[in-house]
Amino acid sequence: MEVVRSQKKPSSASADGVSTIPLYRSAPTLEVRLEDFERFAVDRLLVLRGISDGLARGKKPDEMEKLVSDLWKANMRHPNTSEIIDKDIISHFVLRLVYCRTEELRKWFLSMESTLFRYRFRLETSDVHRALMTELGIPYKSVTNAEFEGLKEKLSQVARSIGQQLPTSDTVYYKVPWEEVSELVGSRRVFIKKGYAYVALNQVVSFVIPHFRSHLSKALVLTNRKWTSMIREQEKDRLTPIVEALSTSYLGPDYTQDKEFGEISLKDIDQVARSSFPLCMRHLFDSLREDHHLKHGGRMQLGLFLKGVGLKLDDALAFWKAEFSQKVGAERFDKEYAYGIRHNFGKEGKRTDYTPFSCQKIILSTPGVGDHHGCPYRHFSEENLRAALGKMGVGSRELEQVVEKAKGRHYQLACTLTFEAIHGASCDSGINHPNQYFKASQNILKEKKQSTA
Ligand code: SF4
Question: Helix, strand, coil shares of the chain as percentages rounded to 5?
Answer without folding.
Answer: 65, 5, 35
